[in-house]
Amino acid sequence: MASPLRDSGIPRWVFAPAAVGALFIVLPLVAIASRVEWSQFFTLISSDSSTAALKLSLRTSAMSTLLCVVLGVPMALVLARTTFRGQVLLRSFVLLPLVLPPVVGGIALLYTFGRKGLLGQTLDVLGLQIAFSTTAVVIAQTFVALPFMVVSLEGTLRTTGERYEVVAATLGARPTAVLRRVTLPLVLPGLTAGAVLSFARALGEFGATITFAGSLEGVTRTLPLEIYLQRETDPDAAVALSLVLVVVAVLVIGLVRGSRSTPL
What we know:
Distance between the termini: 29 Å
Strand content: under 5%
Number of domains: 1
Oligomer: single chain
Low-confidence stretches: none
CATH superfamily: MetI-like
Largest sheet: none
Order of helices and strands: HHHHHHHHHHHHHH
Helix content: over 70%
Radius of gyration: 22 Å
């Protein structure tokens, strides 16, 4: 019986650096689990401030995911199904939050929606103050999570092609009907994966949130911010809450893999 390593067609030496890379990712997670005070785990994660931060994170992440769907689906459709001058530049700007340091994104949002910002001055006259509010948390999370939706869905749209949509159009279906009955059902796995990834990115957002929204308990202090603060005052609670985020991330990855026909 042939060796699985030989059948794979991969040189044996490749497995050594691959194992080192896997350990590089796994060992820090094992280190977190090893430092958890398991006898006090539920006590550590159920304090008033931790519970408030978790509830706020889940609520704002759900809202930002909804915004990512509402804004990201049209953006992905335009990028995948049309061709126009400046499209490459537009795609670069859409993907910019993926590589931009989150704190820079927070500063950009602050100078856009802050009281003295580009739009903030007008909003302030209307009695709307966005910065350092729960709304600011949602905006910050959406800013960093939106590219995940666009990338995931645009890739799925390009993979599925346009042949079914062309057939539906030739049969007399209107563009909106084609989108609703043909396109969206075909790309539903990519849409689901993008939504789940957007939720995960929003849940773990820190830099843009603290810069644009601050850290007010029950209002803008999300779970990552709570972990950062607990690290100085109660390291055991910080470790326990970190493990909670790790577990959520693992569940998210499982959901994304389950929504795709091929492995990530």
